[in-house]
Amino acid sequence: MSGEMIQSVLRANREVLDQALPSFRRSVDKCRSLIIFEPRSFEVEESFDALTSKFARVADIFTQKVLKSLVLSGTSPLVPAGQLTAMKTYGNL
């Protein structure tokens, strides 16, 4: 994969992440404003379920798309260059 193509994929994945973040932030704000009593109401549980789901989506996009694009581009501070070469060689990327 060429460097230009990798950068294009990285930009596209970043856009997907940027689109998912506002909804996640709204869920965080909503859950922060909730007063939790026991037993919790159905609405409160639904709000926390939505937050959990949105967190999972944002985390998945970041780890499976954005970080992988960074690793493929060779600009990832998380993976040493030698290890990156080995990962590409053995098909782990």
Short description:
This protein has 93 residues and is mostly helical.
What does this structure look like?
By secondary structure, this protein is an all-alpha fold. The protein has one domain. Helix content is 77%, strand content 0%. The chain is built from three helices and no strands. The protein has helices at residues 3-33, 42-73, 81-89.
- Helix % is over 70%
Give the tally of β-strands.
0
Structural class comes to: mainly alpha
Describe the sheet with the most strands: none
How many domains comprise the coordinates?
Answer: 1
Q: Unreliable stretches, pLDDT < 50, 5 or more residues?
A: none
Q: Whole-Å distance between the termini?
A: 11 Å
Let me know the average pLDDT: 82
Put simply, the count of helices is 3
Helix and strand succession? HHH
Oligomer: single chain
Strand content: under 5%
Radius of gyration equals 18 Å
* Shape assignment: elongated
What tags apply to this protein structure?
mainly alpha; 0% strand; 93 residues; 3 helices; single chain; elongated
Outline the secondary-structure elements.
Layout: H1 3-33, H2 42-73, H3 81-89
Helix pairs in contact: 1-2
